[in-house]
Every structure is written in C-alpha cells, then in structure tokens.
Amino acid sequence: MALVTTTEMFKKAYTGGYAVGAFNVNNMEIVQAITEAAAELKSPVILQASAGARKYAKPEYLRHLVEAAVELYPEIPIAMHLDHGADFATCKDCVDTGFTSVMIDYSSHSFEENIEESRKVAEYAHEHGAVVEAELGTLAGIEDAVSVAADKAMFTDPDQVEEFVKKTGVDSLAIAIGTSHGAYKFKPGTDPKLRLDILEEVARRLPGFPIVLHGSSSVPQEYVKIINSHGGALKDAIGIPEDQLRLAARGAVCKINIDSDLRLGMTAGIREHFVAHPEHFDPREYLGDGRKYVKAIVAHKITQVLGSDGKA
Fold it and tell me: Which of 83, 105, 144, 259 is catalytic?
C-alpha cells in the first residue's frame, strides 16, 4: 500500500465514532514506535511533520523514513501530513515532495486572509492529489514554531465555519475548543474542560465534515514522574483529560494531534536509562528505551482515547 490521503480515513472515522491519531515525527525511533504500535493494533495512522521537524531532520530524511514505514506495514493506511504550514509556499513544497495531506495555518490572520490563503492551498493540493486542513480559532501554547500567548487565544466561532468551508474548499477543519500546545496547558488546581458545546454546534452546522483537534496531548503523569525522578524539572505539566478527548472522538472529531506526550515518553526512557546505566554510551541502547515508551503511549492512545484499533 502506498501513502494515502486522509479522505477515506475520516469517512470511516466519522461514521464509526472514533478518531485517527496524528502523531508528530522527528526521527527514526519515533517513526518506528508509532508505526509498530499502529500495525500491531491494526489502526490507521497519520505521521505528521511540523516546521521544526522539517528543519531538524530535513524533509528528505522524514519522507524516506515514512516511506520505509509504508513498505514495512502495507496492511495499515498511513498518511503523511504537514502540521502547521505557515503559508502557501510551504504547503506547495510539501505537496510537491510527496505529502498526501497539508495543513495551512493562517488562523492568526484576519478571517478574510485566512479564507484566501486556505483557498489557494486547497486548489493547488486538490490538483495534485493531496488534501488540506485549515484552522479557525487560535490555540494558546508553545510547540515548535507555534507560539501564542494565552490572552491571544480565541475559541472558534461557529457562526464562521460554514462560510469558511464553503469558500475555501478545505477537507477538514481544526477548531479551538480549549486545547493548547505544549506540556503546560492548565494551571495546577484547575478543572480542565473542553468546550464540547462549541464542537457540537460546529458539527451541527457542518454535518459529516471532519473536525480536527490540535494541542491534545494529555501529559501522562507517570512519564512526568519518571523524568522528574531521574534529573528532570517538569513542574506543573498538565494536559487534556483523556475522557474528554474520547468524547470528542465519538463525535465529529476525526483527527487528534499528539506530540508532547511522545516527547515525554522518549525523554523518560532516555533519562531512566542513563541513571540505571551511567556506563552506557551506545545511542541504540538509550534511544531504544525511549522508543519503547513512545510505542506504549501510542498503543494506549489508539485503544483508550482514539478508538481506532482494528479499523485499518
């Protein structure tokens, strides 16, 4: 099976009451961990690269790593997605070099500018067999090239979604309902809640249309504890409650983005390894332990949050 677009993935997810995991990739071990878990659980999967990942690993390396995964696991659908494309030129470059899906994130611009840039990207991508995700509303937080102060974040306005989708022709829409980027999403002592009422209203106005949630890492505390007990200093790292993500996945949300949790797993495995084996210097040993935790996290997400196991 070659790389696929998300079109059929999302159709099945919408009607089946589950979501497909979009996991950010930065190196070989992360690609291996994600796809091994997805293959074992017979789950479709989206491998996505941010601007930071493309700068760090180089687009050519990322593309061939993903193609290797497709070769190894032809039994599961795998899409390659650009996360947070800053402009038309970036999205065009990714479409031209093999991405099957791209996100144009012009959400920080005016509504009219967002429509125009998203429309341009959608037209080009569709002409070349790719699909497009856009965003309405602005998430707070910091992750790679995305940095939005809390007072600049905005919930998605349901009154705008029909016009936006109609005028742009995009294939899926990322909305802001209380998720945020990074590992520090909420303050200690608060009761994190997603605006599921906004999600329901958006779904009512866009029946059958795939919705996407960004900034959806849950920051599992067992990995935070491992990091902090092995020399780390992640104070007050708090994420999105998984029960709320599962509710969203049962509705119109067809794609849930997960990045920070994978970073936590990789870091936990490496820190734990170095404390247990200070004499080791072989990267295969400590990166291998990090990979095991990333795989465990992905498997947990697929079975307990996304509900995509057995859906390949």
Answer: 83
Catalytic-residue membership of 83? yes
Tell me phi and psi for residue 279, to 5 degrees: -85, -10
**pTM of this prediction exceeds 0.85:** yes
Q: What is the pLDDT of residues 64-106, one digit of tens each?
A: 999 999 999 999 999 999 999 999 999 999 999 999 999 999 9
Rounded distance between C-alpha atoms, residue 203 and residue 285, angstroms: 46
Angle between helices 196-205 and 158-168 (to 10 degrees): 40
The tokens of 251 are what? 């509705």
Cα–Cα distance for residue pair 39/31, rounded to 1 Å: 12
pLDDT 10s digits, 137-187: 876 544 555 544 444 458 899 999 999 999 999 999 999 998 766 666 566
Burial 105-123 (b: 16+ CB within 10 A, else e): bbbeeeeeebbbbbbbbbe
Q: What is the CA radius of gyration of the chain?
A: 18
* Cα gap 132→128, rounded to integer Å: 11
